[in-house]
């Protein structure tokens, strides 16, 4: 690359929980630069999680973090061309990519759900992921299965 790699900008922690991970999630959730709307959706979703939770000793934020860690993939397949053939090669994922992939999956699959508001959709997906079910968790399982199936090509790693 000709240019130097851009520096990582420090994220400000969110106002309610004082957590940078929440801000990162809200930045992924946000449409058209409307951060206050995204924060409202996220906080409303956590309120719904708080009402619908079964485990009384955990807070809604802890349930959300559990859901995020349950959705987080550890390996993924990358395409690599070797002598005219394209192979799917399983590779470890670096930690920041694990988190961002989990966030993107959680948000995209909650958008596809059938509840009324986005906060309800997000809350439903968070609760499902915390119980190790739901679409986002299934996506992680499928990714891991794909990597397992292509383990024979791991010697092509670059």
TrEMBL record:
Domain Small ribosomal subunit protein uS7 span(s) in chain numbering: 1-151
Q: What is the top-level taxon of the source organism?
A: Bacteria
Q: Which is a GO BP term held by this UniProt record?
A: translation
Q: Does the keyword Ribosomal protein apply?
A: yes
Per UniProt, the keywords (alphabetical) are: Ribonucleoprotein, Ribosomal protein, RNA-binding, rRNA-binding, tRNA-binding
Instruction: Cite a single GO MF annotation.
Output: tRNA binding
What's one GO-annotated cellular component?
Answer: small ribosomal subunit
Description of how the protein assembles with itself and partners: Part of the 30S ribosomal subunit. Contacts proteins S9 and S11.
Q: What does this protein do?
A: One of the primary rRNA binding proteins, it binds directly to 16S rRNA where it nucleates assembly of the head domain of the 30S subunit. Is located at the subunit interface close to the decoding center, probably blocks exit of the E-site tRNA.
- PANTHER family the UniProt entry points to: RIBOSOMAL PROTEIN S7 (PTHR11205)
| Family classification | Belongs to the universal ribosomal protein uS7 family.
Protein name, entry field: Small ribosomal subunit protein uS7
Q: Which species does the entry assign this protein to? A: Weeksella virosa (strain ATCC 43766 / DSM 16922 / JCM 21250 / CCUG 30538 / CDC 9751 / IAM 14551 / NBRC 16016 / NCTC 11634 / CL345/78)
